[in-house]
Design brief:
The protein has about 350 residues and is an alpha/beta fold. The chain has helices at about 35-40, 75-85, 105-125, 140-150, 175-185, 205-225, 230, 245-260, 260-265, 290-300, 320-325, 330-345, and strands at about 20-25, 45-50, 55-60, 60-65, 85-90, 130, 155-160, 165, 165-170, 185-190, 235-240, 280, 305.
Length: about 350
């Protein structure tokens, strides 16, 4: 591929285009001591650190230090206004999923998180859209909470992990969940967590640099090969970080299916090419050549702005890559900056004072 560069778009009006960020994380300002309440470790608590920071504590150790923009909606809105982001889609930090916990305890944790997100959205209904989280280690409880998120809390959908305690998303275990998500018109955001081979990736930040993209590629691949998208054509699923490593290994996946269908087509005989354009990805790829490859692979209408706000590995200026990749057309930018997001969420832009 020829060399690509980031340049300011010739049309300065592009800087005025709306931005809808589908990949942002939020936490409540206070989190109960669930470890003490339930009688075992592993749950996240918050420990204040100065006036504008807090430590996320797990098993008595600092898991991550966060800034006030991770819990303060007012600060989030100020920072959104600075960068022209009209709407953020809110989801929890994946470590809060608690898939490893006893199901009823995980349900309580997720209900606490979901109630908080719903409260923030209700306070600022034109600035935020909420995604819930679920106790996916028990599908019955997960479906119960999904229904509450959609019908009572009026969320747009849910965020789930790339696997649940080793169960890939293509496993039959998840089939009732996919049926329910399709039935209740829930957008599903798939985010990597609990990465493979942590002992081999404990240095150089490799769990986040290599492990996360690998997890996401595995999730997409198992959903394709198992026939999830075939059985549930109305599912609207978006994958974080531009689909992770999936775009880079797509050619190998397609070739493998063609030369060894006896190994690859055991659950779904439909070629994987059929499912390109059937799922969404966010734009968080940090590279113009990869963004253009994504456009060619899944289609511009399946790429939505995502920044991983407020974390440092995300895009610090929302939409900068989309806006400055000179090979994109103005219409491409409109799709990536806001139109694809509303299509995935099945929300009307007019409800948020934005153009169609």
């Amino acid at each position: 591929m020829h060399a690509l560069s980031l340049t300011a778009p010739k049309n300065n009006a592009m800087t005025l285009l709306p931005r809808v960020d589908i990949h942002t994380h939020i936490l409540p300002p206070q989190i109960p001591d669930f470890s003490r309440k339930f009688g075992y470790e592993g749950f996240i608590s918050l420990q204040p650190h100065g006036c504008c920071q807090a430590n996320m504590i797990k098993n008595g150790k600092i898991f991550r230090r966060i800034e006030a923009n991770c819990w303060d909606a007012g600060i989030r809105i100020e920072e959104c206004d600075q960068h022209g982001v009209q709407v953020q889609v809110l989801s929890t930090v994946p470590v809060m999923f608690s898939y490893w916990a006893r199901p009823q305890h995980a349900l309580e944790v997720n209900q606490f998180i979901n109630d908080h997100i719903a409260e923030v959205v209700n306070q600022y209904p034109t600035r935020f859209i909420g995604l819930g989280s679920l106790p996916m280690q028990n599908i019955d409880l997960a479906i119960q909470e999904l229904e509450r998120c959609m019908n009572e809390l009026k969320m747009a959908g849910v965020e789930i992990g790339t696997h649940v305690n080793g169960h890939n998303l293509g496993d039959p275990y998840f089939e009732p969940f996919w049926e329910a998500a399709e039935q209740w018109n829930a957008a599903v955001f798939v985010h990597p967590w609990d990465m493979l081979c942590p002992d081999r990736m404990d240095k150089y930040w490799l769990q986040w640099l290599v492990g996360m993209p690998t997890e996401t590629a595995l999730a997409i691949s198992t959903m394709i090969f198992s026939g999830v998208f075939e059985r549930h054509p109305r599912l609207r699923v978006a994958f974080a970080h531009g689909g992770g490593a999936f775009p880079g290994i797509w050619g190998r996946i397609r070739h493998g299916f063609n030369v060894r269908p006896d190994l690859c087509a055991v659950d779904n005989p439909i070629p994987p090419d059929h499912y390109l354009g059937r799922f969404y990805v966010d734009s968080l790829v940090h590279d113009p050549a990869m963004l253009l490859q994504l456009k060619q692979l899944v289609g511009v209408d399946k790429i939505a702005l995502g920044t991983d706000y407020p974390f440092v590995l995300g895009e610090q200026v929302p939409g900068q890559l989309i806006e400055a990749t000179k090979e994109l057309t103005d219409d491409d930018r409109r799709w990536m900056l806001y139109r694809s997001a509303f299509a995935w969420l099945d929300r009307n832009p007019a409800e948020y004072d934005l153009p169609t």
